[in-house]
Amino acid sequence: MKENGLLLMVNGQSYEFKIGTGPGEVSPSHTLARTLREDLGLTGTKVGCNKGECGACTVLLEGTPVLSCLTLTVECNGKRVTTIEGLEDPETGELDPVQQSFLESGAFQCGFCTPGMIMTVKALLGDMPAPTELEIKEALSGHYCRCISHYHVLDAVGRAIGKRG
Amino acid sequence: MKPFRHINVPGVAEAVDYLNKFPGSSRLIAGGTDLLGVLKDDILPAYPELLINIKAIPGLDYLREDENGLSIGALVKLAFLARSPLVREKYKVLADAARSVGTPQLRNMATVGGNLGQETRCWYYRYPHGIGGRIQCQRKGSGPCLAVGGDNRYHVIMGGKGCFAACPSDLATALAALEGSIKTEGAGGGRIISIGEFFHPLGNALKAGEMIVELQVPPLPAGSRQHWLKYTLREPVDFAVVSVAVLTVLEAGICREARIALGAVAPGPLRALQAEQFLKGKEPIPEVLQEAAVLAVQGAKPLSKNGYKVEIARVLVLRALEASFAGHK
Ligand SMILES: Cc1cc2nc3c(=O)[nH]c(=O)nc-3n(C[C@@H](O)[C@@H](O)[C@H](O)COP(=O)(O)OP(=O)(O)OC[C@H]3O[C@@H](n4cnc5c(N)ncnc54)[C@H](O)[C@@H]3O)c2cc1C
Ligand code: FES
Ligand code: FES
Asked: What is the domain range of residue A56?
């Protein structure tokens, strides 16, 4: 951690920023969603409502699903952030089993809600080896899908659990 | 969001210090789930210059039980409260209320202090500045309450005065049934505010430069049972249209203690004292519970579009009492 500076660990890589209002600097009023998308070019994280209601902007902060639209970047100094871009194998490019399951189940139409959903499922399966359907629904209750892919998502989560054997 | 300065404070003393150094132009930020919405929409006539981040204050996220009851540090996250085996087992309404807030991600971020400190959701008060200009109102210090002549379907049915916005905090309702209180620190030292005194029609009892450090719940009456109900349009995300927390004690088939707290119907959580008195000493048979539920909403003064909340409140009280008494088996 640095004075007047900011260290973010995003998807295993460290990024340093100056805190300020100049170009490329992170202002105290910037949200994590904005920094990820506009400064780091990680546009996999979506911003839907920008006010905490839809879950599209969900990322993992120290492994826990949080809303990046309601998180200030300056408050993530020294913290680990995982976004959808961080799930595939960096060397082989192979998708994470959760991503693969969403593909195989066709668990989206437009795909806008998908990165957020996948991050939540990733955290859920990290905490619980075999969540019940109720637990899966509860974990995903903060994600809106306007394309009504919810049933396919449940199928995808079941598939992801299956993949782990 | 418009810019502000941001500072991390290492302790409560420093937080209070900054609040007092920047009176009126600073705000505490905990989980930020309410505050950042308020700032994005720029609803406040005075936009803060400085945000004081209290999230990293060590040791303010404790949950402790001793002979004085339960103490909950202001930085305890709602997700933690909802999952705590101790809270779920003994302070059930608190765990259920916490679990009913928002969504899992919000509960991972939101703190108990922020839950009590959050601003009302009145849609006139929260109207975004960016869409045709900020709406002024009584709560913001100028003009009348626009809910009175406007769309007031989610506003108060009791206790409004000047402003008719409802208390949005679910924890407040649960705390009221548990007769909890709020411990603060300020420039002149700390104090303890009972939950019933914390909210008033135009805001809350916190003075400038004062912060919440702890929620306190006194020891529970022996053999008591509790029940929480929250009526919303959808299960996740929505704020309560009405919520109810009850606590009951039954001895040899007779009700010895009944506490009924109503949420989202008034500027703060409201105890239905008349209904509580009525229940004491009686056998909780269906007719008695029905009468108590009627008494709980007696005196309600709904606005033009929220009379339906009176009926929802009555039914929730009835159901919560039934469930709580059924628990004494
Ligand atoms: C989509 C959505 C749905 C929601 N649904 C619900 C719901 O169903 N029920 C419900 O109760 N709430 C709901 N909320 C409100 C939610 O923000 C609060 O419940 C949450 O607990 C606020 O905590 P926080 O730590 O994020 O507060 P913050 O946003 O950090 O702070 C809120 C306010 O309290 C002040 N504050 C924070 N900590 C303290 C302290 N220790 N002492 C004094 N003042 C303090 C801040 O200055 C600020 O003004 C919802 C919010 C959203 C965005
Ligand atoms: S964009 Fe963050 S919750 Fe909708
Ligand atoms: S797939 Fe379109 S929003 Fe979910």
From this structure: 5-86
Residues whose CB is less than 8 angstroms from the CB of residue A77 and which lie 6 or more positions away in sequence, other chains included:
A1, A6, A7, A8
Closest CA to B102 of A32, A57, A52: A52
Short-list A109, A116, A110, A96, CA closest to A159: A96
Which of A72, A74, A121, A124 to mutate to probe the B interface, most B CBs <10 Å?
A: A72
| Mutation choice for B interface testing from A67, A140, A144 by most B CBs within 10 A | A67
**DSSP letter, residue A3:** T
Domain assignment of residue A149, yes or no: yes
- 3-class secondary structure, A156: helix
Secondary element (H or E) of residue B109? helix B104-109
Q: Which pLDDT value is given to residue A3?
A: 60
* CB atoms closer than 10 angstroms to residue A162: 10
Domains of chain B plus CATH, in order, are: 1-135+146-329 (3.30.465.10)
For residues B189 and B16, is the Cβ–Cβ distance under 8 A? no
Residue B168 has pLDDT above 70, yes or no: yes
Q: Is residue A92 part of a domain?
A: no
| Closest residue in chain B to residue A55, using alpha carbons only | B105
Spatial separation of the C-alpha atoms in residues A85 and A100, rounded to whole Å: 14
Residues A54 and A102 placed together within one structural domain of the fold: no
| Ligand 1 atom with the shortest distance to the CA of B37 | 53
Indicate the residue among A36, A59, A86 that finishes a domain: A86
Calpha distance A16→B254 (Å, rounded) = 66
Is A91 inside any structural domain?
Answer: no
Q: How far apart are CA B46 and CA B252, in angstroms?
A: 58
Q: Clarify whether residues A63 and A44 are in a common domain.
A: yes
Q: Is the pTM of this model over 0.90?
A: yes
pLDDT for position A1: 42
Nearest CA-CA partner of A119 in B280, B82, B105: B105
Statement to judge: residues A101 and A58 lie in one domain: no
Q: Which two tokens stand for residue A24?
A: 């490329």
For residue A55, the chain B residues in CB contact (below 8 A) are 103, 105
ipTM: 0.97
DSSP state of A112: S
Using an 8 Å Cβ cutoff, are A99 and A88 in contact?
yes
